[in-house]
Amino acid sequence: MTGVGAGPVLKVFAALVYAFLLSPVLIVIVISFSADSFIVFPPTGLSLQWYGRLFGHPALMAGLQFSLVIAVIVSVLSLALGVPAAYALAKGNFRGREALANLFLAPILLPTLVLGLALLLFFQPLRLTATIPGLVLGHLCVTLPFVVRMMTTAFATLPDEVEAAAATLGAPPWRVAQRVTLPLAMPGLLAAAALSFLLSFDETVISLFLSGPRASTLPVEMVRYVEGRTDPMIAALSVLLIAGTLVIVIAVEKLVGVTRAIGR
After folding, report:
1. What is the DSSP letter of 41?
2. Is residue 11 part of a domain?
3. Cβ atoms of residues 140 and 77 within 8 Å
4. Cα 48–Cα 49–Cα 54 angle in degrees, nearest 5
5. Rounded to two decimals, what is the model's pTM?
6. pLDDT of residue 260
7. Are 209 and 144 members of one domain?
8. pLDDT at position 199, please?
């Protein structure tokens, strides 16, 4: 009898947990359509005015464009640097391999507050703060470990026999990688690119340390906005960001599947 009743109980418990986790998002969505001039829940009326004002706000729109540029550059560099490193860690058998793998994953273990302060102290004498190269390098410290981890798993699941067969047929290593390895690892590549893009676009703490008047990302502009205002415009922007993130995640799931992308 206990086993029969466990199913409905677990379903109700899971539903309550999901409701608890999603309730802040639902509240933000409702507030984004508020007709009030300040944040209040529930709103006294509904309106689309804050979405219209959002697209006319110069600082937030400039931050959005800047964050998109940074995120694209970081995604490309994360793959360019992380994919060869991951392949070496997954397929190579050399001395110090485990130490090198731990070195790549070390930034994940550091609090972003500590990492951001360290980057600020390191970049300040080099005059890389408030610059695109400085922000890209800072975001790479966050995205690169995830790309290496995901691609190492993706490469480790590839059958060695397929690459060996291509090599025995006379294909040089670069052609084996181009025609065999990378196509088989494409699900992981797409997932790693999407993840690095989202991580860079959403990075706040490191951006707060490295941004300035000349180079300010969208999360930094959002923090500055809420410091002096309490209107629902930031809720409208949050809803658009949530929708954009869902589109990317659903696209990756439909194209390659998350389980297949990160390896079984």
Report:
1. S
2. no
3. yes
4. 105
5. 0.83
6. 53
7. yes
8. 92
